[in-house]
Design brief:
This protein is mostly helical and about 325 residues long. It is built from 16 helices and no strands. The radius of gyration is 19 Å and the shape is globular. The protein starts with a helix and ends in a 6-residue tail after the last helix.
Amino acid sequence: MLSRTADHLYWMARYTERAENLARIADVTNRMSLMPQSDSDLEMAWRATLKIIGLEEPYLARFERITPDSVLRYLVFDRENPASIYNCLRAARENAHAVRGTLTSELWETANTTWLEMRAKDPDSVGPDGMSPFFEWVKYRSHVSRGVTIGTMLQDESLRFIRLGTFLERADSTARFLDVKYQMLEDRDAPPDEAADYYQWSALLRSVSAFETFRRVYRDQITPIRVAELLILREDMPRSLHRCLKEVHANLSAVSNARSRETERRAGELHASLKYGRIEDVFEIGVHEYLTRFLDRIYDLSNRINEDFLVPTLA
C-alpha cells in the first residue's frame, strides 16, 4: 500500500475517534457541572477537561476565564481550535475524500454526511439544552462509522490501518481520562465525600460506556481500584488499555514489514505488560506515574508508525 493512502486512512480513523472521545469527556463534565458546587470546583472540573486533551494552555492564551459556556464553544465549534469537534470531523472527511476510491461507497457517504450535518450546526442552533443530545449525535456517528467500516471494508491492509488509528487514539484517550481523574482526587483539599465520589466515578464509567459493564463484572460498590482495573487491565472491556493494545499489536503484525520490526516489538511488549500485569503493581507504582509512562509509550508508538508506514513529515 502507498504510504499516502495508509496515512489518510489512519488519520481518518484517528480524527473520527478523537471527535467521539472529546464528546464523551465534554458531555460528562457538562452533566457534572449541573450538580450543586462552588464556582472554584466548577472551574477545576472544566480546567481538568482542558488538561485531559492538552488544551489548557492554548485556551488560556485566548480566554481570560474558564467558564462552561466558553470551554464548550472552544471544544465543540471553534474553527481556530484544531482539536475542536468541528475540526476533527472536518479533517476526518478530508482524509476520507483523499482516498475515496479505497473506501466503500457506504463508508464514504457516512463520513461525508457526518461532516455536512456538523457544518450545519452552531452554538445558537444547538443551545445550552441541546449539548447532551449533540454529544450523543457525535458518538452515534462514530459508532455508525465503525460499524460500516467493519461491515463493508475488505479485510486487507486498508482496514488494518483504519483499526490501528482507532485503537491508538482510544488508548491515548482512556489513559488521559483516568490520569486526570486520579490527579483530581489526590489534589483536592476537602475531605472525601462518598456520595460525590460515587457520582463522579459513575460519570467517568458512563463516559467510556462502562457503567453497566462494571456492574456486571464486579456487582459491588464502585471503588477507584476496581475502576482502574476495568479500564486498564480487562481484556474484554472494549475501551480498556489492554484491549486497545491487543488490537494495536494485532493490526501492526498484519501490516508489518522489515522496517517496522522494532515498532511491532515495542507494541507487543506494551501489550504483554497489560496482559500479565496486576492492578496491585499499578497502584504500587502510582496510577499517575503508570499512566504517564503509558502515554509516553503510546506517543513513541505513534511516532514510529508514522516513520515506518506513513507520509514523512517535512522538517
